[in-house]
Predict the structure.
Amino acid sequence: MSWINDLDALASAGVINFDAPAYIKGTQPRYYGNPAFETIPPELPQAKTQPVKDEFKKSENPVQNPKWKKVLFGLLLTAGTIFAASKLKPVKNLLKKVDMTKLKELPKNIWQGVQNSWSRLVNFIKPKKP
């Protein structure tokens, strides 16, 4: 329903007794009093009942954000942090001191460390033969 239909429903129900949309728009009124409109049902939906006692009901999770919003926020936060850090002078000086050749060998060194750890674990668990 539009706001005009809502105000017409109020007039039909007897809450107001004039053409409120015409009054708001500053045009000639279409009706006076409480007309019975054919398109408006005679019985309006019931409003929520008032609570019996004053209480606060806490919901489990008041914010229901979908996963894509959480991921997008995390990516934006990470990108913003990296961008802000790149603008700081100490970080720029630190990046100039970093040796990029060692940085390129990092995945190879990590894989070598995993292999060494695995072999140590296997040798520790494997029973030794006398």
